[in-house]
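Practice problem 4.
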């Protein structure tokens, strides 16, 4: 994540040096809530009866990111951005596995998505310039923490599956609306609602609600 943000900021700084007088760029940071549909979709009862799975997380979580816009004109712009969402679930368990007592107390497991996005944004109309709509494509990678207690096999499995070890990746589209208001000549405050649909998985992955702060240059 740190390397992605560093690369993104390097691109922004380069663009700023190349176009100091163009006033065509804006840099946005955002942080807020996400609702993830996938993290509630696990079937924790699958498999042999003598087995306990801890997979599901809370629907509501957090999301934060950074985004750069290249303004084609006063009404539309191109979007490039990165966001990470995180959903957690608290787990508790007590039992015996092959004569060994096992206790899990107030332990949080997490699911994180990295969203890499390219898109297009446009004002709805001239009479309401503060309200915009946007859409685009997204590439997502996942980090899924999971616990499984398999009494029948005398196994306790604690793992994080991700792109590196399990090739967890999906592609899809996103869309939403963004309300922004200038607070001075260079900054704008806003609220954005966005939804992510993963075409490769044929599922609505998440919706986000984030306040935004944008710097114009």
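Answer key:
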């Amino acid at each position: 994540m740190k390397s992605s943000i560093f690369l993104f900021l390097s691109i922004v700084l380069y663009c700023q040096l190349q176009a100091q007088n163009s006033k065509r760029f804006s840099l946005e940071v955002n942080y807020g809530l996400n609702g993830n549909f996938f993290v509630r979709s696990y079937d924790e009862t699958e498999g042999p009866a003598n087995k306990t799975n801890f997979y599901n997380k809370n629907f509501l979580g957090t999301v934060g990111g950074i985004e750069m816009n290249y303004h084609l004109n006063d009404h539309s712009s191109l979007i490039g951005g990165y966001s990470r969402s995180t959903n957690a679930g608290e787990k508790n368990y007590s039992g015996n596995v092959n004569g060994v007592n096992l206790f899990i107390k107030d332990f949080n497991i997490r699911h994180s998505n990295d969203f890499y996005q390219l898109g297009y944004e446009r004002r709805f109309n001239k009479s309401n310039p503060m309200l915009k709509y946007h859409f685009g494509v997204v590439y997502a990678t996942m980090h899924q923490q999971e616990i499984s207690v398999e009494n029948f096999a005398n196994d306790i499995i604690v793992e994080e599956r991700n792109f590196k070890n399990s090739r967890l990746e999906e592609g899809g589209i996103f869309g939403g609306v963004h309300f922004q208001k200038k607070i001075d000549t260079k900054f704008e405050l806003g609220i954005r609602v966005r939804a992510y649909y993963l075409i490769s998985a044929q599922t609505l992955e998440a919706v986000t609600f984030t306040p935004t702060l944008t710097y114009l240059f």
